[in-house]
Amino acid sequence: MPVKNKIKQFIDNKGITPYKFQKDTGVASKTAYDLYNNPWQVPHATVLNKICDRYEIQPSEILEWIRPNSDLANEENK
């Protein structure tokens, strides 16, 4: 089940930095930057809860399911 995170897009749309995102959510610095820089990095449930609680959002705002055989999943896995 390929899942892609949309955290870079979320952070950029909010006009904040990954550092501010890390401070707001309380997640580890490495985790915040990994999620920002790698869309295939899926947040652990604990991290996902922290993000959703802090920004009062649904997980679907920062996660996207990709059809396993889609061109997007195949292209980005190369």
UniProtKB/TrEMBL annotation:
Gene3D superfamilies: lambda repressor-like DNA-binding domains
Domain annotation HTH cro/C1-type: ranges: 6-66
A Pfam family matched in the record: HTH_26
InterPro entries to which the protein is assigned, alphabetical: Cro/C1-type_HTH (IPR001387), Lambda_DNA-bd_dom_sf (IPR010982)
Top-level division of the source organism's lineage: Bacteria
Protein name as it appears in the record: Helix-turn-helix transcriptional regulator
UniProt source species: Nostoc flagelliforme FACHB-838
